[in-house]
Amino acid sequence: MAAVDLSTHPGHLARRLQQAHYLLWNTMVSEEITSPQFAVLNALVAEPGLDQRTVGERVGLDRSTIAEVISRLGRRGLLDKVRDPQDGRRSLLRLTDDGGRVHRKLTVRTARMNQVFLAPLSGDEQALFFSLIQRVSDAAEGLRNPVAPGEPAVSRAP
Amino acid sequence: MAAVDLSTHPGHLARRLQQAHYLLWNTMVSEEITSPQFAVLNALVAEPGLDQRTVGERVGLDRSTIAEVISRLGRRGLLDKVRDPQDGRRSLLRLTDDGGRVHRKLTVRTARMNQVFLAPLSGDEQALFFSLIQRVSDAAEGLRNPVAPGEPAVSRAP
DNA sequence: TAGAAATACTCAGTGCCCTGACTAATCGGG
DNA sequence: CCCGATTAGTCAGGGCACTGAGTATTTCTA
């Protein structure tokens, strides 16, 4: 009677998209290392020695989740975690040799997987796909913080 | 050195999009009822008396997850679950009056939330956004089953 | 019609994701 | 210098999502 069409609900579509991605990742990339775990490895390849909070910021994981992910990667021996001697609050992170190897291997497979995943779209459509999702996510993210005083909420015309 | 740009990785973008949505849902729609829970309520408004598996199919949740979601909705008194007398394997589901009320209330709020969420996109872009995501998800979903004999993998030209 | 196959559901285990409360360390202003 | 605010990380708790194994029920078939 008053039911709604979920295919026009971005949240529902986002969930389905992620599930589809999970499926493909699991079959084409790895059953051991998850996509968020790969994102963490990747962040540490780009910037070794980052502290835990910053890694979370780079890959979009909150303090609790990043702690769990890092603990799992540590258990697998893919990264090392040491207290910052300069600031006893921080944990500094660095890939092990194994971590680097795993990252390299998965980078290749991930590229292949992305091709398959995006195959239904033309090159132009893929660019559009990225930019539309990015814009929506960024805007919503901007609504999070109550806007620093003097700062505009989202982007300002240059 | 060999780090990758995650902003061109659809999986990463999908995760970020869902997080953004979660955030908005939590502040604009409900802190009690989640988006997947709403999807289940919605499916039962459209088709009362559905069995558990079919509801899962409608909203895109696997057998285990749908069981959990339904158990939570049952605990809150939003739906009733009875054994099918015709087929003792099935559980038939139906909203309670309370469930219907909650669905109506959230339908309104969800519409408002979607507007805010999609505000950064023009009308044309929103349509594109839906269709691109849909196409990618459907295609990946199509790779799941090993293709019924005689049936084409994805869509067939009409 | 009896046994095999399929189907609906449950349960255990793993991982992601968030909030809110807490601890420990650092930093800043009086 | 010290006390209050800020910051990094941990922990408990709730919810989503998947796989693999197990149970009960139905259905198909030899």
UniProtKB/TrEMBL annotation, chains A, B:
SMART domains: HTH_MARR. GO terms for molecular function: DNA-binding transcription factor activity. It comes from the Bacteria. Residues 1-138 form the HTH marR-type domain. It holds the Pfam family MarR_2. One of its GO terms (biological process) is response to stress. This is MarR family transcriptional regulator. It comes from Streptomyces dioscori.
